[in-house]
Specification:
Strand 5 (about 75-80), helix 3 and strand 6 (about 125-130) form a beta-alpha-beta unit. It is built from five helices and seven strands, in the order E-H-E-E-E-H-E-H-E-H-E-H. With about 160 residues, it is of the alpha/beta class. It is globular, with a radius of gyration of 15 Å. The protein has helices at about 15-25, 60-70, 85-100, 135-140, 155-160, and strands at about 10, 30-35, 45, 50, 75-80, 125-130, 150. The protein is about 35% helix and about 15% strand.
Amino acid sequence: MSSITITSIPRMSRETLSALILKQATSQAQDFVVVDVRDSDHVGGHVRGSLHVPSTSLDYRVPELVRSFKDKDSVIFHCSLSQQRGPSAALRYARERKRLLGIDLGDEHVGQEGTDKEQGTAGTQQKIYVLDGGFVSWQEKFGEDEKLTEGYQKDIWEFGC
């Protein structure tokens, strides 16, 4: 039984993620990745630069993601509300990462948002997060900000999705 649970994966606020995206835009560094696991509800916009991996494809995509993201400092997962699919995807990723690389969340920094206790340059120091509130919360604040959101369609979100 794995020691990794959904409750051991920290949340990242939309403000913290927006700061990371804006910082990345001014540098060459690509030290984090945002994974959007929404399925057919992946309409009306997405976090700038995010990778769309529908939750229905996670069974076969997670090992590929672990290998692809091994050099990233942080991996941030989200769905619409980040209540089910986003946290579950983060958990699957963390467990597969442990299986493939032999690295447990307890062996690395999983802690509080905003801490730079360890600088990840791959390997054992990767941080895994879930975007708090998911895309619904994100679009409420940053939907119309083209530096932070791509493909935003306000009319889809005006009356709830």
